[in-house]
Amino acid sequence: MKCMISQPTFLPWIGWFDLVEQADLIILYNTAQFSKQSWQQRNRIRTIRGLEYLTVPVKTSGRFGQKIIDVDISQIDFEEYFKNKLKDAYSNAPFFKPVMDDLQNKLPDLLVSRKLSHLNEGLIKFCCEWLNINTQFIRASDLNIDGQRGEYLAKICEAFNCDEYISTEGAEKYLIEDYKFFEQKKISVKIYKYDHPVYSQLIEPFMPYASVIDLIMMYGHRSKEVMQKAQRYTHAITI
Question: For residues 212 and 187, is the Cβ–Cβ distance under 8 A?
């Protein structure tokens, strides 16, 4: 059984969702420390100006060290701002209307708590529906597990009887350093690299590494086909 543990970031890129599809279980690490101006609160969409950040304004004053789960959205009219930014960028996209109709139905519930983690988790599941990904999600905040870095990840895998932990190449360095915690529990660690596919965008030239919403606006429920056309490279960590 494969486990992926990741922070609930804002509208992640295609490669993140491709890794989600490879997993049997996703732990949303919402108890990690919040990092201002990171992927936790922003991502990029394709506009006539290039790749432009779409950011969720949050409260940070006097809240140093707060966890993602505790972060509050600060902009009262964020829903309208969010919808307008997507409309400006994608109103001419082939699947703009069905995607936006679906999103507008879901947004009020995702914003009722005014919590960043609630919004991010809901948008992740929204995108999974359009990508036809059915991987199970569990929040770290619902688990009674402690520890640091690799020790913590290995404990989670063990708790759910996962014998394989999968991650992106960005985490490889510290996973090598902490590999002993996985080895002790007989859990293999696999690193995935994803080569971004080229697909039709509203504006040329093609610019990779936008939020997955860019792909969904262009391909709707066929987005998964495009995502799966990319090359994947996998290797196991060994010491």
Answer: no
Whether residue 98 is preceded by a cis peptide bond, meaning omega within 30 degrees of 0, is no
- How far apart are the C-alpha atoms of 122 and 97, rounded to whole Å? 19
Residue 3: C-alpha distances to residues 70, 132, 224 (Å): 25, 19, 21
4 burial type by CB count under 10 A (0-12 exposed, 13-18 middle, 19+ buried): buried
Copy the structure tokens of residue 235.
């290797």
pLDDT value at position 16?
97
- Tell me the pLDDT of the chain averaged across its residues: 96
Q: Where are the domains of the chain?
A: 2-236
3-state secondary structure of 2: strand
pLDDT digits (tens, 9 = 90+) for 131-162: 999 999 999 999 999 988 999 999 999 999 99
